[in-house]
Structure formats: structure tokens, C-alpha cells
Design a protein that fits this description.
It is built from 18 helices and 18 strands. By secondary structure, the protein is an alpha/beta fold.
Length: about 575
């Protein structure tokens, strides 16, 4: 590493020669405000909020894209700099709705926080609002262009990270709007509903569609039996909404808080993660033994399912027919649980708490009614559940820890790691090894499929043969793998694909900011939860055994196929 020396606010520091002024300032413990900047993802210098003075330069320079030079002298907080920043923010505010109190991003809005930080108490500019588009066509995402500041973070995430390329700037100058092509709605476009745009939008221009009021209404209805399932990733991330370090596992407190909201039963999606492994593992072995279509690809991630339907519909026969754990849970609740409890399924209101906006879309797919009712009635993101807990005045640090309710409160460590990239693969191999060999896999921690590398590969010995597997996370990484399949050149037998970077722990409904470091900490939190559980293999879950004995019969059986499996369709517009 080649180092250079410069001065920032009269402080001499040494940094790597390829650093920007912003990076150098942060290394020196100096805060330079930013708005359009997104570390490691989006550095374009468009908002000019991060401007600084550089001795010898006539104009202020954007620190996020200006490289350091040896001997450079920088001032970050002069009167000229402060006035320029306030002017830029005031101009943005002059074209921004004055509805902070009713905005979904209130107190989480970066523009609002920046205005406070810059001591802006009144705006000298009165601007005419630019044209606005309000799009609530999707069950997952709302787009309100009146709150857009044209920072283009969402474009970079959609186009460069996920590589779905739904969003683009339409129009010119003052008439510019960030939108799907031709002014389409989110539902008309090839949006996969992943919600990564909502995690990076600094304002309320892109937010998840909220179902908080629907859930409150159900909880207040005495005729409704309201149950909730909580996804694995939630326990390692929701604490961030209450001041805890990312990755802090708050399972007991989370259950206690959700019970305090008034749900009749609080269940663990880990249970149906284990159930998914039983079905998916059995499906894989059936394909191998019967000459079925290989490689088989996991189907747990609804954003990935939307992507394959819309862009690779010709390889859908490679995708597992299993529903996601969320939808399996909904089917079980409206059938087995309803019968067991003697409750009319029409009176059961089934809620899920997910780290994902695409789960909202998935819950409204027409296929997801195998029980005769919607499998899942409402989906809340991590952020929405935190909002409900705050609204109810529940203090997470003081709530008593409680356990999930039985019979769906028991999940294995394999179910817990479903939230991590590689977790589904690791969980599946723990069980498939047992189904093939009759013996337990001695070392259940398969480190080859762990980590944040975009594509991971591993080989495991099963029944006298080597089985090659791959793990992919983030839609931007998957085309290479899918093109291999399309060309008949895939070397793999089994592939796990997760839509969001990092897997579910980096989902579109997670607390913000979600960056590389928070993903790493959340991932380790779930691995810690796995290590601390006595049962670490899905096939050892006693309640999974019970549901097969009492109700389903066997994996891939007639009833399990009806309730726990589904089909997907080719939705390519150009074939």
C-alpha cells in the first residue's frame, strides 16, 4: 500500500494514495456530511453536500469523488463550505413535500437529519414542486417521486448491484423523474420486488407498502385468531431499531415484545425452514435417483423466483417446486393447526414478519391459496414490526424474554441459518447426508458455503459420489450460473440462490443502513444462534416428525405436495 500525507482541518494524516478526501477525513475522525454517497456502492458527487475547500482550488470540490494528493490541504468546515452545504440542502427542501410528520421515513430520513445537522430552521427559497408520480400498484413497494431528490442511489443498486435495471431517469432537467421505462408502474415493469431500493433511498421516495394498520385491526377483532410467524433473520437484526449492535440475537425479547402486542400465538418460521429442508432434500434425492432435471435450484427467495420467471423462464424446471418457509407455514396454519385447535380457518388471521419486501408480493401470488384461503394474510417487514413495538410503548431492553408457542416454536440450528447466504445449502446438506448414508454428518458446519463471496462452490461426498454445489447471493451474481444451465454446461447438482446481497439478513425490509459490515455481523449472529441450539439438523426437529406422523404422511406425499409445493410460470415478455 502506497501512502501519502495531507492536512485536513490542520490535522496531518497519512492515507492510502487511492483514498478520496471523504475517506481520509473519516479515517481522521472528521465528519463530512453526505447525501447521495453510499459507501462501496454509489459515489458520483451529484448532491454536492460533501463539498470541502482545497487550498489552490478555485471551486469547492466534492470530497466523495476527489482523490487525495500528497501535501494537499483541506478545510471541511469553513464558513464558505457551510454556506454552500446549507444552500444545496435548502434547494432540495424547496422542491420537497412539507409532510415530515406523516412520512414513513420520519426520523429516518437522511434529508431531514441533514437539515437538522446543518442548523436549517427556515428556508429562504420557495420553489414550485416538480411533477410527481405516486405509484402504489405493487403489494410490496410504494414509489412517490415527489420525495425523490434525484440522488440516483436506487438506480445504482437496481442496475449495478442487482442488475435488474428497472429504474432510469426519465425526462430532462427540472422534469427528470426516476421511474421504470416508459413511465410504467412497478407492477407493469420487470421489478422483482426485492426492495433493495427502499434500503438505500435517503428519503420517503421508495418505501415498503405498510400493512401495520391491517394487523392492528385484526388484533382488535375479537372474532379473529391472530397468529404470527417470525423469520430467522429478524432475531439478529431487529435490535438495530432499538439501539443494539447489529447481529445481537434477541430471540427471547423479540417473542416477549410480539406477545405484548396481543397476538394469540407467536410461532417460529424456523419450524417450516426445517420442513422445507425435509421436502427440498427429498425432492433433490428423487431427482438424482430418477433422472430428474438437474441442477436443482432452491425456491425460498421470492425475489429470485420473480427474477427467474421474468428473465429465465425457460429453465423453470430446474427450480424446486417447494414453497418458501413463509408460505408453507401459512398452509400448515390454515389446515393442520386449524384442525388441531378446532378453529375455523376463515377466522384465522396469519401474519408473517420477514426481512423482505418481496414476501409481501409472494403472499399475494394466486398460487398461494392451497389451503382454500390465502396462506398468509399480511406480511410485515423488520422495520414495520419495530414501528409497531414503538407505537405500543414497549421497551425492548426491559421486556421479559419468552419462548415461542408450541407446536411451531421449535426450530433447529439448520432452520436458524436460513437467513444467511449459504444457510439453506448447509441446512439441506446436513439432512441429505443423513437421508443418503443413514448416518449423521459429523461436522455440520460447512464453511465452504459461508461468507460474502458472490459465488461459492463446494463438493460433498454422498453415497459414494461427489456432489458439486453452488451458492449465489445478490441477483447481480447469478446470470453466469443461469447461463451455464441454459447452455447445458452446469457442473452442479444443487444450487442455492438468494435474491439479496448476504441473503435474507440483507433483505429489502431490514433496518437501515444495511452495508457490508452490518451484513457480516448479522450473519455471525445467526451462526451463533445455530451453535447455541441443541438440535442443529432439520430432520431431528421433533415437531417436524410429529406433523408428518399426524398429518402430512411423508415428504413428497400427496398431501404435502398439495400444501407445501407449488408451480411457477414463464413470465418473459419477449421469448
Amino acid at each position: 500500500m502506497s501512502m501519502i500525507e495531507l492536512t485536513i482541518d490542520n490535522k496531518r494524516i497519512k492515507v492510502d494514495k487511492d483514498s478520496t478526501i471523504l475517506e481520509a477525513a473519516r479515517q481522521a475522525g472528521i465528519t463530512v456530511p453526505t447525501l447521495c454517497y453510499l459507501e462501496g456502492v454509489h459515489q458520483v458527487g451529484s448532491c454536492r453536500v460533501c463539498v470541502v475547500e482545497v487550498k489552490g482550488s478555485k471551486n469547492l470540490v466534492p470530497s466523495c469523488i476527489t482523490k487525495v494528493q500528497n501535501g494537499m490541504k483541506v478545510i471541511t468546515n469553513s464558513e464558505r463550505v457551510r454556506n454552500a452545504r446549507r444552500t444545496m440542502v435548502n434547494l432540495l427542501l424547496s422542491n420537497h413535500p412539507d409532510d415530515c410528520l406523516a412520512c414513513a421515513k420520519n426520523q429516518k430520513c437522511e434529508l431531514q437529519q441533514l437539515a437538522y445537522q446543518l442548523n436549517i430552521r427556515e428556508n429562504p427559497f420557495e420553489g414550485q414542486p416538480s411533477r410527481a408520480v405516486y405509484d402504489d400498484s405493487s403489494p410490496a413497494i410504494i414509489r412517490d417521486s415527489s420525495k425523490c431528490i434525484l440522488c440516483r442511489r436506487c438506480l445504482t443498486v437496481c442496475n449495478s448491484v442487482q442488475k435488474v435495471s428497472v429504474l432510469a431517469p426519465l425526462g430532462r432537467g427540472y422534469d427528470t423523474v426516476i421511474s421504470p421505462a416508459y413511465g410504467q408502474t412497478v407492477m407493469e415493469a420487470t421489478c422483482v420486488q426485492c426492495g433493495q431500493c427502499t434500503t438505500v433511498c435517503p428519503t420517503g421516495a421508495l418505501v415498503e407498502k405498510s400493512y401495520i394498520e391491517d394487523v392492528w385491526n385484526a388484533l382488535a377483532d375479537p372474532s379473529k385468531h391472530v397468529v404470527v410467524q417470525i423469520a430467522p433473520a429478524i432475531r439478529a437484526s431487529i435490535g438495530e431499531c432499538f439501539g443494539y449492535e447489529p447481529g445481537t440475537v434477541l430471540t427471547g425479547k423479540l417473542v416477549g415484545a410480539v406477545k405484548a402486542l396481543g397476538f394469540d400465538k407467536v410461532f417460529d418460521t424456523n419450524f417450516t425452514a426445517d420442513l422445507t429442508i425435509m421436502e427440498e432434500g427429498s425432492e433433490l434425492l428423487h431427482r438424482i435417483s430418477s433422472g430428474g432435471k438437474l441442477p436443482m435450484i432452491t425456491s425460498c427467495s421470492p425475489g429470485w423466483i420473480n427474477f427467474v420467471e421474468q428473465f429465465y423462464g425457460d429453465i423453470l424446471d430446474h427450480v424446486s417446486t417447494c414453497k418458501s418457509p413463509q408460505q408453507m407455514f401459512g398452509s400448515v396454519i390454515k389446515t393442520y393447526y386449524a384442525q388441531k385447535m378446532g378453529i375455523d380457518p376463515a377466522n384465522i388471521y396469519s401474519v408473517s414478519v420477514m426481512p423482505c419486501t418481496a414476501k409481501k408480493y409472494e403472499a399475494r401470488r394466486e398460487e398461494m391459496q392451497s389451503s382454500g384461503f390465502w396462506d398468509v394474510d399480511a406480511v410485515l417487514t423488520t422495520r414495520e414490526l419495530a414501528a409497531m413495538i414503538n407505537e405500543a410503548g414497549i421497551q425492548m431492553d426491559k421486556i421479559d424474554e419468552q419462548n415461542f408457542d408450541i407446536p411451531f416454536g421449535e426450530g433447529s440450528g439448520a432452520g436458524a441459518i436460513f437467513g444467511n447466504t449459504g444457510g439453506v445449502m448447509e441446512a439441506a446438506l446436513r439432512t441429505v447426508y443423513k437421508l443418503v448414508t443413514g448416518e449423521e454428518l459429523e461436522n455440520v458446519e460447512l464453511t465452504d458455503v459461508r461468507g460474502l463471496k458472490g459465488i461459492k462452490e463446494a463438493t460433498i461426498r454422498l453415497g459414494g459420489r461427489d456432489v458439486s454445489v453452488a451458492v449465489v447471493h445478490g441477483l447481480g451474481n447469478i446470470r453466469e450460473i443461469l447461463d451455464q444451465i441454459r447452455e447445458g454446461k452446469s457442473p452442479y447438482t444443487f444450487i442455492e440462490i438468494m435474491c439479496c446481497p448476504g441473503g435474507c439478513i440483507g433483505g429489502g425490509g431490514q433496518p437501515t443502513p444495511t452495508n457490508h459490515e452490518t451484513r457480516k455481523k448479522r450473519i455471525e449472529g445467526l451462526y451463533k444462534a445455530d451453535r447455541n441450539l441443541e438440535i442443529r439438523r432439520s430432520h431431528q426437529n421433533p415437531y417436524v416428525k410429529m406433523i408428518y406422523e399426524e398429518f402430512l404422511g411423508a415428504p413428497l406425499g400427496e398431501l404435502s405436495h398439495k400444501l407445501l409445493h407449488t408451480h411457477y410460470r414463464d413470465r418473459r415478455t419477449v421469448q
